[in-house]
Amino acid sequence: MSKTIEITSSEQFSDILSKSRIVVADFYANWCGPCKQIAPVYEQLSMSLSRPNIATFVKVNTEGDKAKDVAQAYAVTHLPTFILFRDGKIAEKVKGADPQKLKSLIEKLSNDIETAGEGGSSGGGGMTWLGADLPRGYSDISDVIDVKGLELLNADDTEFSVRTLFNRPKPSSLEKSDSEQKDWVESDTDEQLLLFMPFNSSVKLHTIQITSLPPKAGEDDDEDEIPMRPKTIKLFTNRPHNLGFDEAEDIQPTQEIEIGEDDWNANGTANVGLRFVRFQNITSVILFVVDGDGSSEKVRLDRVRLIGESGEKRDLGKLEKIGDGE
């Protein structure tokens, strides 16, 4: 496993942020007693979770002439401070030498590391494939999804996994490949799907990108068996768990959207714009595929991407200043 990297300059730190999708930084000082006490815990977590170009653990000595510029850039005023970066941006921050809070943060981070590692190892490099351009000023925040809490109802789960929807590489249907590995999901008994997505931190959602790449019908194909793209979807926010299909039909959604044929681009992706004011401080989203764009009994999804802004961890404000060196 990779060892913790000691930061000696702001240029070095910027380079690491650009190359590693997840970066955890320990801001410390040699005179700080609590920093020394928690250092072995941090080293242990680094040794077990570091992954080249996926998850990198660094230490920033705030006393160093050059490294202290990094601390100033991220407004570090308490020691130790641990900052988690996703795709070069601050995702979460923990102040104080509390091993349990640090371990809890890293354990939740392990979901992201596992997902990123699976995606990176199956082709497409370290970057996440997007089926459409990002709206200006927003980014892909799909990595805030708590993958262990994902639930997809009415999926043909004998062949498909819900985590497939958030794979990082380009869908296999867009690649010229003879691979028989299926990297999409289809509905089972009818065209409806209920996807529950809980988040590790509160977010602001601007857009949902849905990619659907059903095969074209051949002369001998039964069109009723060929899956459809979704047409009508309903979105529900801040639910503690998934809904049932009857409940999803009856209650008022946060937003209902109809995807037209012209909304799908050449990558088979629809940019589903949201009423942004209704999607602030969101901790979970349910995507309900009500029906498809044809007469088949199946709907297909290849990828789902969440576009917006990630926020601070919901319970960070309650952290006690334990072991702060002031």
UniProtKB/TrEMBL annotation:
Coiled coil (residue ranges): none
Ranges where the Thioredoxin domain occurs: 1-111
Pfam families: PITH (PF06201), Thioredoxin (PF00085)
Transmembrane segments: none
The PITH domain, residue ranges: 130-326
Organism superkingdom: Eukaryota
Keywords noted in UniProt: Disulfide bond
Family stated for the protein in its record: Belongs to the thioredoxin family.
UniProt protein name: Thioredoxin
Species this protein is from: Apiospora aurea
